[in-house]
Structures are given as structure tokens and as C-alpha cells.
Design goal:
Layout (H helix, E strand, L loop, with lengths): L3 E5 L5 H14 L4 E6 L4 E4 L5 H4 L2 H6 L3 E4 L7 E3 L3 E9 L7 H15 L4 E4 L3 E4 L2 E11 L2 E9 L4 H7 L32 H13 L5 E2 L4 H15 L2 H4 L8 E7 L2 E10 L2 E9 L8 H7 L6 H8 L5 H4 L4 H8 L5
Parallel strand pairs: 1-2, 1-11, 3-4
Antiparallel strand pairs: 2-6, 3-5, 6-10, 7-8, 8-9, 9-10, 12-13, 13-14
């Protein structure tokens, strides 16, 4: 029988926390691992987002907010000590299982038990009434899957709207005016006696119920490796902001499954360089697709043919191959 583990992580350093999460995913290949954690005053951008475009650089600098890129898809989120983050690392389910709904199930159960009318909505959101209280994201590594989410318990929502830039194209309804108007705090929907500590305890119990578990304590040699990963990857400008190219072509489209943004250089009719951004729900890095497009002729049909070599849902979530190709070649919808 495989062991199940709970990781008690009291660190609030975002660079360390994401390094720890990645290390657990790539080095602990058996059992279910649950980790609850918090980041202090941080913007966490999605794996495929253009950090320079997503963040209000001046506000972030003036308020000492750190910026770090995660390895999963989706959009940028603000973390403070009013948030509770959870990570679940487990074996991948059978083909066809809705992993997002599977892993958010225990979270929604806890919220409902506490009196909040929570439900899963859209691509990756947990909603209470008309407010988003959590976004979630996933990635796969070999036979393992990482699912994580950021739960807004008592977050400073004014910082959320001020620290992020949101393109007007992302909003379909004129009634939605800002990020702040779309999100809410869990504390506003549960009894006053439910504190962050109580919520954390209830969530851990729910995620690990029906199975025994051990506290996962990492040996010193693994802690050294996590510190190295933090220093050499998550603290670097190259990882968090990336090295943009001087591009000749810049295309952007919004689909039901998220946004796609492409920067390219094309020479003599062939794609020389390609960077792909967006808030799509990827399980694998879109850079693998972008790399395969290098050398491809800049024609919709040939770009689509390359895209169809991939299991496209792993790279762009519910965005279809023909939609990605239409953004790359700027084909009208």
C-alpha cells in the first residue's frame, strides 16, 4: 500500500515554496502528497504568461511585492497571508477522468460543510455565489499530476486589482469592470468563528480522510537541493520574466478556453522564432509546441498540421488546434 503524506510548510517565501512544490513532484514518485502553504505579498504568474504585460510594474515595485512564475498554466494571481494555498501531488487518474473536478471536490465539500454555497465553475474556478474564491491549475510529470489552488480567505482585494493589468478583451460583459469585482473572500461566507487556522485544519482533514498518512520530513540533502532550485531557477529574472525576442509578428486572440498570444519572427516564409503566452490551462509547457514550429512554413494549413502532432489539450486546455493555428497565422474568426 502506498503511503500518503502531509507536508507542513510554514515558510512564506514564494521562491522557496514553488521550488519545494516542484521538487516534491519530480522526486517523490509514490503516494499522495498534500501540502498547505502561504506566500507573503506575491504575484504568481502562470507558466505561459508574459509577466511584463500582466503586472502593474510600478505598483509592484512601490509596494515591495515579489513576482514569481509557477510551472502550471492559467492566469496571474495575488498571494498574501490572507490566502491559503494547497498542493496535491498524486498518480494520474484513468483516461477520461476530470482531474480538475476530482481534486477540487474535497475543497468544495469543506466550504459547503462550513455553510458556503461553493461550486466548481468555468475552466478552473471555485465560486461562492457570484464571486471567485479560488483559481486552480495543474501540470503533469511522467505518471504524476500536480494540482494546486489559491484560496482567498481574507485577502486584501484592493491589492489584487491594483497589482495586475487586465486586458479589456478578457471581459465579455460590460457589467464586469475589474478584477476586484469578480473575486471574494471565503470569510464573508462562513461563520465568524472559522479562522484561517480552523479552515486550514478542516481542509487538511478532508483531503486526507479515509486514508492514513505520515508527516513528510525531508532529509538535509533534499533540503539543500530545494534551496539550489530556489536560487538557480525561482529567484532568477530569466525564469520569472523571460528573455523576450525582437519580434516582427505579434498576434493575440481570446477564446472561451483562455487567451493565446504569439510573438514570432518569420524569414523567407518560415517561422524562425516563436514564443507563446496565454492563460490557457496547460498540463505541459507550450514551449515544446513553439519549438516544433521553428522551421515550419508560415501558412495556416502547415501550422495546423504541426499542431495536430500533439495531444493539444495537454498544452492549451480546451483551446482547439485550429484556434491556436488561427492565432499564429492571424486568420479571422
Amino acid at each position: 500500500m502506498k503511503n500518503n503524506y502531509l507536508v507542513v510548510n510554514n515558510c512564506t517565501d514564494p521562491y522557496y515554496n514553488l521550488a519545494l512544490e516542484e521538487y516534491l513532484l519530480t522526486h517523490h514518485m509514490e503516494g499522495v502528497i498534500v501540502m498547505l502553504w502561504q506566500n507573503d505579498n506575491t504575484i504568481v504568474v502562470g507558466r505561459h504568461q508574459n509577466a511584463m504585460e500582466e503586472i502593474n510594474q510600478q505598483f509592484v515595485k512601490e509596494h515591495g511585492i515579489r513576482v514569481v512564475r509557477r510551472t502550471t498554466g492559467g492566469g496571474a494571481v495575488y498571494h498574501d497571508l490572507g490566502n491559503l494555498n494547497y498542493s496535491v501531488i498524486a498518480d494520474r487518474g484513468e483516461e477520461g477522468r476530470d482531474e480538475m473536478k476530482h481534486f477540487t471536490g474535497p475543497v468544495i465539500e469543506v466550504l459547503r460543510e462550513l455553510g458556503a454555497k461553493a461550486e466548481f465553475s468555468g475552466r478552473n474556478d471555485i465560486m461562492i455565489e457570484d464571486r471567485k474564491v479560488s483559481g486552480t491549475a495543474q501540470r503533469i510529470y511522467k505518471n504524476r499530476i500536480l494540482h494546486h489552488g489559491c484560496l482567498l480567505f481574507d485577502s486584501d482585494l484592493s491589492v489584487v486589482s491594483k497589482s495586475l493589468n487586465v486586458r479589456s478583451e478578457k471581459f465579455n460583459s460590460k457589467a464586469v469592470k475589474s478584477v476586484k469585482s469578480r473575486v471574494g473572500n471565503i470569510k464573508d461566507y462562513v461563520p465568524d468563528e472559522i479562522t484561517m487556522d480552523v479552515f486550514r485544519e478542516r481542509l487538511a482533514e478532508k483531503m486526507l480522510e479515509d486514508s492514513g498518512y505520515d508527516m513528510l520530513k525531508l532529509p538535509e540533502k533534499e533540503l539543500v537541493q530545494i534551496e539550489r532550485l530556489k536560487r538557480e531557477k525561482y529567484e532568477t529574472w530569466e525564469w520569472n520574466y523571460g528573455q523576450p525576442i525582437n519580434c516582427a509578428i505579434h498576434n493575440y486572440k481570446k477564446y472561451e478556453g483562455g487567451t493565446v498570444e504569439v510573438y514570432m519572427n518569420v524569414r523567407e516564409g518560415r517561422i524562425e522564432e516563436c514564443l507563446m503566452y496565454g492563460d490557457f490551462m496547460a498540463l505541459r509547457p507550450a514551449s515544446e509546441v513553439a519549438g516544433r514550429l521553428t522551421g515550419c512554413r508560415y501558412r495556416y494549413e502547415e501550422v495546423l498540421e504541426v499542431l495536430q502532432e500533439f495531444r493539444i489539450r495537454d498544452y492549451f486546455g480546451t483551446i482547439e488546434a485550429n484556434e491556436v493555428a488561427a492565432c499564429i497565422c492571424c486568420v479571422p474568426e
